[in-house]
Design brief:
By secondary structure, the chain is an all-alpha fold. The protein is built from six helices and no strands. The mean pLDDT is about 85.
Length: about 120
C-alpha cells in the first residue's frame, strides 16, 4: 500500500465518521438545516483536501442522511415523512460543496504556488 492510498484511507474514514454524525443529527435532533450545513461543510473539507475524484465525497456525504433515515425506519425510530423527504436535500448541497472544495483547492494552488527548489540570487 503506497503513501497516497494510506492517506486516502484516512479521509475515507473521516468521511464515514462525518456522514454518521450528519445522519445522527438529522434523525435525533430532527433539524434538517443543521444536518445540511454539516454535510456542506464536511463535503467541502474533504473535496478541498482530496480534490481528485471529488464526486466520491459528494456521494458519500450526500447519501449519509438517506441512509440514516433508512436505518431509523428499520429500527424503533419513526421519523415523519417530511424528515424522510428532507434527507435527500443533503445530496444537492453535497454536490455543490464538492465542486466548491475542488475550486477552492485549485484557487489556492494558482494563487499560492509551491516554491521550486532553485532560488534566484539576482
Amino acid at each position: 500500500m503506497n503513501s497516497q492510498n494510506k492517506s486516502d484511507s484516512l479521509y475515507w474514514l473521516l468521511g464515514i465518521i462525518f456522514g454518521a454524525a450528519c445522519g445522527y443529527v438529522h434523525i435525533r435532533m430532527q433539524d434538517s438545516s443543521l444536518s445540511v450545513l454539516m454535510v456542506t461543510g464536511f463535503t467541502m473539507f474533504l473535496a478541498y483536501k482530496r480534490p481528485k475524484r471529488a464526486w466520491r465525497w459528494a456521494i458519500l456525504m450526500g447519501l449519509s442522511m438517506p441512509v440514516a433515515g433508512l436505518v431509523a425506519l428499520l429500527t424503533r425510530e419513526r421519523p415523519s415523512r417530511g424528515m424522510l423527504a428532507g434527507t435527500f436535500a443533503g445530496l444537492a448541497f453535497s454536490i455543490v460543496a464538492a465542486v466548491g472544495g475542488t475550486v477552492l483547492h485549485r484557487a489556492k494552488t494558482e494563487l499560492f504556488p509551491k516554491k521550486s527548489g532553485s532560488v534566484d540570487s539576482g
